[in-house]
């Protein structure tokens, strides 16, 4: 602290430290040249580089070790980000699937509402009953015409199901093995 006070007195030009001293300084001493500014910035940069290398020396780490630590930190960050990112992407795909299902269901609801509106007419209900269930009015004679190419569906089975062959599974297996 005392050194700073002395430096101020030297700058002022008086030994007693009084007065402003600005009028007594020569003009060239007030101005700094660009060379001096460049020199100061170089000095600051070199001091900063020495401090950084000094810090690495204090930690006892070489350039290779520092690079390895940086690589480990980057890998740790990547693994930290990977799991939430994967979860986000999977949830996003699930949301898209649910939105598609919702749009399909909305189309289905619209079709069913249209069908409901059609069936509100009694004439439509009568036509549907005649077609699907074979209803006839009293006094009418129903006729079913079968062409030779048409096969009559069996009464006991709904269409689309195949008849189940008789016999247990082991008998069928034995017949296949025996070649029968």
From TrEMBL:
Domain of life from the UniProt record: Bacteria
Q: Where is this region: Disordered?
A: 1-43, 141-168
Q: Which UniProt keywords apply?
A: Membrane, Transmembrane, Transmembrane helix
Whose protein is this, by species?
Answer: Amycolatopsis azurea DSM 43854
What is the recorded name of this protein?
A: Cell division protein DivIC (FtsB), stabilizes FtsL against RasP cleavage
Which stretches are transmembrane? 67-89
| Keyword Transmembrane helix set for record | yes
């Amino acid at each position: 602290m005392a050194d700073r006070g002395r430096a101020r007195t030297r700058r002022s030009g008086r030994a007693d430290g009084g007065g402003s001293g600005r009028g007594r300084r020569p003009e060239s001493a007030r101005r700094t040249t660009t060379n001096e500014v460049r020199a100061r910035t170089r000095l600051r940069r070199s001091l900063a580089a020495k401090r950084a290398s000094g810090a690495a020396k204090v930690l006892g780490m070489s350039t290779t070790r520092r690079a390895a630590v940086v690589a480990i930190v980057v890998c740790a960050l990547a693994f930290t980000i990977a799991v939430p990112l994967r979860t986000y992407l999977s949830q996003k795909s699930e949301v898209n699937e649910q939105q598609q299902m919702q749009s399909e269901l909305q189309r289905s609801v619209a079709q069913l509402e249209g069908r409901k509106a059609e069936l509100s007419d009694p004439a439509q209900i009568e036509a549907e009953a005649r077609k699907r269930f074979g209803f006839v009015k009293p006094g009418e004679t129903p006729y079913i015409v079968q062409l030779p190419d048409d096969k009559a569906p069996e009464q006991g089975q709904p269409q689309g199901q195949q008849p189940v062959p008789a016999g247990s599974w082991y008998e069928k297996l034995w017949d296949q093995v025996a070649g029968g």
